[in-house]
Design goal:
This protein is an alpha/beta fold. The chain has 17 helices and 13 strands. A hairpin with a 2-residue loop joins strand 11 and strand 12. Helix 7 packs across helix 9 and helix 7 crosses helix 13. The longest helix is centred in the middle third of the chain and has 21 residues. It is globular and about 75 Å long. It starts with a strand and ends in a 9-residue tail after the last helix.
Length: 484
């Protein structure tokens, strides 16, 4: 038998080594690249049909194809090192081999690809075509990108560049620039209301968050048994897009058929999400890396751009919406609003501590007392770290009421469409991005979603109340089993 290193391709041949692989010590390291024994897999001599059809034979790299909506691969510069496969195994707990149908499109492999062969599926051309056709361009920006885009323009990691980002987008030709943090506030209003109902009416618990499309696809593919545990709320982009088309256009007296909407996001999986038949409203998704490339091609530098602010309607969100961009932020934002829904009082930061759901540990848990209720919550970032928690839910043994799961380590600030990190600096950069979002939250006068004046207005004028019939029609979704 032969065993191949997934990183460098070194082959351990039992016949040559005169030793069985099972007899090799667990402390063994690859003599070529020094990774551990766990990064070796049984060597397969046979080619798969998919490999035989490809232009080149790739034995180590993931075989992405045109059907993948989030990730594109340039075979010409792929060196077949296998780092993409090992990244998927380490971060997502998946080992595809040649099967990419189950790809989460999370793009973590893009971040670790050493040659740039992997990149987000580019959608800038769609925007340029819409602009040429005379469409009204409207974009909305995810919370996490304002603390990451500066990396590509020489700023300190974690620098909060909201006004510079908006100015750059206007310079590219977007007539309206909105904030998906507003969509995050909408998500919290619906999600906290849903959680309240499940708790009070003995509904299905624990309830999982639903804002991460890679996590949702993972559950649909590998754990369809727990789909009823996932909140039915659309993600912030899912809510923002439909509200732009159905509410914003009417308020602004725009013909929605002449509007082209663009989500600017750290996440490649959003490209897959907005093309789900259950989700509508967003015409294109571009990542931070696509945006920075476009800006540089247009010779637009954040350091020289005219600063600007979001358009007022569906504009900025709350501090709770802002921290959506990092691990623990969704859980904390939901609990801030749930506290109000359950008690009728504003949450008090001194009395209601969220420190246990913050931080960079892959699994965090806390018990939060709200009135006479004690809620047990868990926060997980990195899918591979979530398996035990998911298994407990599947088996009916979970102790939690509410569970936040994000696919990418650090949350959205670590998305596959973010600028790459200097070698060895990934954790440092991510923690600075997280700190940048929390710093903004500290200075924000509006801390919780229910306090946002624009949120109050949209419910008064359009949605009536959280979880109303019309809110369910526009803001909630359903899931499907993908384990066939």
């Amino acid at each position: 038998m032969k065993y191949r290193c997934k990183i460098c391709g070194y082959i351990f041949d039992e016949e040559v080594e005169k030793k069985k692989w099972t007899e090799v010590s667990n402390s063994y390291v690859c003599p070529m690249c020094f990774v551990g024994k766990e990064m070796f897999a049984e060597y397969r001599e046979e080619e798969t049909p998919k490999e035989k059809e490809s232009k080149r034979i790739f034995e180590h790299a993931v075989l992405f194809d045109e059907k993948n909506l989030g990730v594109a691969k340039d075979d010409a510069i792929c060196i077949d090192c296998g780092i993409c496969k090992s990244t998927c195994l380490e971060r997502c707990g998946l080992n595809f081999g040649e099967d990419t149908e189950k790809c989460l499109t999370c793009g973590q492999c893009i971040i670790t690809c050493p040659t740039g062969a992997l990149k987000p599926k580019n959608e800038v051309e769609k925007i340029l075509e819409a602009k040429k056709a005379g469409k009204i361009l409207i974009c909305y920006t995810s919370p996490a990108i304002r603390v990451s885009i500066g990396d590509a323009f020489g700023y300190e990691a974690g620098a909060f560049l909201q006004e510079e980002l908006i100015g750059a987008l206007r310079a590219l030709g977007f007539q309206y620039v909105l904030d998906t943090t507003f969509g995050a506030d909408l998500t919290i209003m619906e999600e906290a209301s849903e959680l309240k109902t499940r708790i009070q009416d003995n509904g299905i618990l624990p309830m999982f968050t639903s804002c991460c499309p890679a996590w949702v696809k993972y559950a649909e593919t590998f754990y369809p048994e727990i789909l009823d545990n996932i909140s039915t709320c659309k993600s912030p982009i899912g809510m923002q897009g439909i509200m732009v088309k159905e509410y914003f256009t009417k308020q602004m007296n725009l013909n929605k058929e002449n509007v082209f909407t663009v989500a600017v996001t750290p996440c490649t999986a959003k490209k897959f999400e907005v093309r789900r038949e259950e989700i509508s409203g967003t015409d294109a998704v571009i990542t931070v890396s696509e945006l920075t490339k476009w800006l540089k091609e247009e010779k637009i530098d954040l350091k020289n751009v005219q600063k600007s602010s979001f358009d007022s309607l569906l504009g900025e969100g709350s501090g709770g919406g802002t921290i959506f961009g990092n691990t623990g932020g969704v859980c904390e934002a939901a609990l801030r609003t749930l506290y109000y829904f359950l008690t009728g009082n504003d949450f008090n930061e001194k009395q209601l501590s969220f420190k246990n759901v913050r931080g960079y540990d892959n699994v965090k848990e806390a018990t939060i007392k709200i009135g006479d209720k004690e809620l047990r919550v868990a926060v997980v970032h990195k899918i591979s770290a979530a398996k035990k928690i998911i298994e407990d839910v599947k088996n009916g043994t979970s102790p939690y009421h509410f569970i936040e799961i994000m696919n990418c380590q650090g949350g959205c600030i670590g998305g596959g469409g973010q600028p790459k990190y200097p070698e060895g600096m990934e954790s440092v950069v991510k923690e600075k991005r997280i700190a940048g979002l929390y710093k903004r939250d500290e200075t924000d006068n509006i801390k919780a979603s229910y306090q946002n004046p624009d949120i109050k207005k949209i419910y008064q004028e359009f949605l009536i109340e959280p979880n109303s019939e019309i809110a369910h029609h526009y803001l909630h979704t359903s899931y499907k089993k993908r384990n066939k």
